[in-house]
Design a protein that fits this description.
With 396 residues, the protein is an alpha+beta fold. It is 36% helix and 18% strand. The protein contains 14 helices and twelve strands. The strands form two sheets. Strands 1, 2, 3, 4, 5, 8, 9, 10, 11 and 12 form a ten-stranded mixed beta sheet that branches. Strand 6 and strand 7 form a beta hairpin. Helix 11 crosses helix 12. The longest helix is centred in the middle third of the chain and has 20 residues. The protein is globular, with a radius of gyration of 20 Å.
Length: 396
């Protein structure tokens, strides 16, 4: 198998989403395929790579319905002006692995390069959670459905499985994670993200793009610089009476897109590109669906086994903060130093545009490895339905 390299990474600003208050979302009037195409164009323009050499494009999207159905990835390809002539020879696909969709897309294109099928590929992810909201509304419309047989299954608590907040409650209870610990992680996420933003760490990855109205959108809108332990402690549980999961220690609804440029070693030389990192391993793993947040730790174990590494050899971690319980569980299960996890903040502060998150995790990880001059890093996410996915990168 050939080596695959993360040559470059970029994303849009992440905007707060709200189906009933579209005015708060800078991307509310921008279709997902249009937003992703802008990121693809921006990444190619910055890297100096001619889009005609891109042979493969994988797109992650957790809710590929309504206008987020992309005709197998063709719509973003055709909308991206630099993938010319409209990328006719480039193979595309759209992948739904829920919150792991972005990392699954990256893995798919990486494997095409590993086996020698292509030399240059791209992987992206996108979600507009104002225009295509999460499950409840889509189930009510009949756009999403669930098999009646599963509602009667005595081994599956489907009412919990389909509610990510309730699965986070189950995980917190099973792992003995307190409300105080979750709120502390949430506060830390906002503080780290605010500090990283102020220091300009996101500027190299966050493309200045215009929305449908022609207005520039260049800042992440979910970071709360004014939050405090007292404010977080005063929030009521969202999903169950007496629970520990609140809006403050959960990731917010978010709209955004992200993309990576992946290359073989000969392609790097041909295009004179110094990559961020080499892809060492990618692994996913299933877990009990009622505790889907445990999937991140399970996938990390699999990726470490593939790479023949132990947790102590990983210097930098990006563990998705879908809920604060997820990274707290992984840190406890794998004895990870909290100071090495989500160093520039996580999804609680930056946002979680479902299909784009995996790309952001991998891209930020690669940039952190370079910034900190560390060798190995690992990014991971839990996945609705009871899964997890993880990637290990090595700094070039």
């Amino acid at each position: 198998m050939r080596d695959v390299y993360l040559a470059d990474y970029a994303r849009s600003a992440f905007s707060r989403a709200h189906p009933h208050k579209p005015e708060v979302d800078a991307w509310a009037d921008t279709r997902s395929d249009t937003l992703l195409a802008s990121v693809l164009d921006g990444l190619l323009a910055r890297s100096g790579v001619d889009g005609t050499v891109v042979e493969d494009l994988s797109i992650g999207c957790a809710l590929p319905v309504k206008e987020q159905w992309s005709f197998g990835g063709r719509y973003p390809l055709w909308l991206a002006e630099r993938l010319g002539p409209r990328g006719q020879a480039c193979a595309t696909r759209q992948i739904d692995q829920q919150c792991g969709s972005g990392l699954a897309a990256l893995r798919n294109t990486a494997r095409e390069i590993q086996v020698g099928a292509v030399e240059v590929g791209m992987a992206g992810g996108v979600e507009n959670m104002t225009r295509v909201p999460m499950g409840p509304a889509l189930f009510k419309e009949g756009v999403l459905t669930s098999p009646q047989a599963l509602h009667k299954a005595d081994w599956l608590a489907l009412d919990i499985v389909l509610n990510m907040g309730l699965t986070a409650e189950r995980l917190a209870k099973a792992a003995g994670i307190s409300r105080e610990a979750m709120d502390a992680l949430a506060l830390n996420s906002h503080q780290r993200a605010a500090n990283a933003d102020s220091a300009g760490h996101f500027d190299p990855e966050r493309l200045p793009l215009n929305n449908a109205a022609g207005d520039p959108v260049s800042t992440d809108s979910n970071i709360r610089t004014d939050t405090s332990a007292e404010r977080l402690a005063g929030l009521e549980p969202v999903f169950m009476k007496g629970g520990v999961v609140t809006a403050g220690n959960s990731s917010p609804l978010t709209s955004g897109a992200a993309a990576t440029l992946l290359m073989s070693e000969p392609a790097l030389r041909q295009h004179d590109i110094t990559p961020l990192a080499r892809i060492v391993a990618v692994a996913d793993r299933g877990v009990m669906p009622e505790e889907m947040g445990a999937g991140a730790a399970a996938a990390i174990r699999c990726a470490l086994k593939q790479a023949q590494l132990i947790p102590q050899e990983i210097a930098v971690w990006e563990i998705n903060e879908a809920f604060a319980a997820v990274p707290l569980h992984a840190m406890g299960a794998l004895l990870i130093d909290p100071e090495s996890v989500n160093i520039w903040g996580g999804a609680i502060a930056l946002g979680h545009p479902l299909g784009a998150t995996g790309i952001r995790l991998a891209g930020t990880l690669g940039r952190l490895l370079q910034s900190r001059q560390q060798r190995y890093g690992c990014a991971a996410a839990c996945i609705g339905g009871g899964q997890g996915i993880a990637i290990i990168l090595e700094r070039c």
